[in-house]
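Our consortium's second objective concerns turning raw sequence data into structural hypotheses that experimental partners can test. To show how far this objective has progressed, the report includes one record in full. It was chosen at random from the queue rather than selected for favorable results. The single chain below, 347 residues long, was entered without modification.
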Amino acid sequence: MYWKYALKRIFYGLIIYVILIFIFSALFNTTVEQTARTEIYEKMSSELSRVTQNMSPEQVEAYRAQYLERKFKEYNLDKPLFERIIWRTYNSVTFQYGNSTKIKTSQGEKEVIKIIGETIPKTLLLFLIAFGIEIIIGILVGIKKAQKAGGMMDKITSVATMIVYGMPSWWLGMILIMFFAYSIKLFPSGGVYSTPPMIGAMKILDVAYHLILPVFTLVILNFWGTAFVTRNIVLGTLQEDFVMSARARGIPEKKVLFGHAMRTAAPPIITIAVLTLLSSVSGSLLFEGIFSWPGMGNLYWTAIQMNDIPVLMGDLSVTTAIYMAGLVFLDLIYGFLDPRIKVGGKA
């Protein structure tokens, strides 16, 4: 049964996600606790200067000890190491990241989940739009290459694929910014909104205007690979016996291509497409930095620079969750589309 297959894949995905977060929590444990202790002592100094003015030295020392004991319990710093890591893993898995140390939302709030909630839509907006365009173009070009394999178009686009795939995203992004933003001044060099920000329908158009250059860069970088993979998969499928048989029966070429060949070629093409999207979203640090795009990658870099560990852990766990969810979704789609996959553990 397909639902058993789906539940099993979702369960495995959750288990792997928890294991990864546990590893991240263990790796960041020392830094997280150093940051927590620094925050506790800073707050304690402020608290002591405010409430202990009329206390004797013995009373101040007692108050200080009580304050530290209370705060250490609040942050679970009084527990054994393994228990502290488990507690931090549980908080990360349940999206309880606490407050940031320095970074704030546009409204001045310090809750990490709100900071991420303000940031993640911008990353998804950029990469999903680019993904949709590059997949459409890549599949169409790949089909044309497969239909005329060895022709002039196939050779030129294959060479172009090797050239573009050798380009670092940050280098191509900087070249396009220099040309379109500074030489001919057609598009903005970065950001999401103009200054001063617009309102209403003009704000939507302004965001779309700022999206053009980064989306164009992503499409130029990624659609060649999709086209090349699609070409090879479709070309192999077109040589299968069932396609030859369909052609021999006089079925129109379009129906043979889209009704027979593409249905069989769909799972591996979807696999490549989704993996490209996931790698783009999770590896967006440099790209978002170049275009000053305030997404998850840019937030991660800012958190590293400002040593804001709660935001760093929150960003890392949410990005990991997106990646794992994408892999599980890919597995479910693959099992649904490809009848050769055995579901429910039965041969």
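The partners drew two points from this record. The mean pLDDT is 84. The two ends are 12 Å apart (CA to CA). Both points have been shared with the crystallography group to help prioritize constructs.
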